Amino acid sequence: MQMSTETTASYGPDNPAPVIEPPRARTGRTPSATRGNFEMYGWLFMRLSGILLVVLVLGHLLIQLVLDGGVSKISFAFVAGRWASPFWQAWDLIMLWLAMLHGGNGLRTIINDYAERDNTRFWLKMLLYTATVFTVLLGTLVIFTFDPNIR
């Protein structure tokens, strides 16, 4: 029995291997590899912020829910008492900023991976950046301008 040449390809100078196209072809607008290390810094930020967020969130849950009496104790007065301390303001501010930047960076990566058209990718990232900045600014404003004497 003789094997077909179609199923047993022998690659060499006369018969080169097939070329696998990249997932997204480079264009004139594609950033060059020498532009910078933004993606490496983004990758490093995700790892470091993730570790810090685990500590902050688990500490927050332990202190707020276990040591301070649980969810039934959380009220307007409870928050007012907590945010009267600069320590708790800083804790919540760092947690807010890291969570939003960590989540925003993760969604940016997902948008880059799955949005195929440049225009779609651009608008999705603009929407993401706008929502992230809005949430960070509003949360920061609330933390620093919280008035426990509001009526």
TrEMBL record:
Q: Which Pfam families match?
A: Sdh_cyt
Return the annotated region ranges for Disordered.
Answer: 1-31
Q: What is its main location?
A: membrane
Where is it localised? Membrane
Bias (Polar residues): 1-10
- Transmembrane stretches in the record are 44-67, 87-105, 126-146
Question: Can you say what this protein is called?
Answer: Succinate dehydrogenase hydrophobic membrane anchor subunit
**What is the species of this protein?**
Streptomyces sodiiphilus
Organismal lineage: Bacteria, Bacillati, Actinomycetota, Actinomycetes, Kitasatosporales
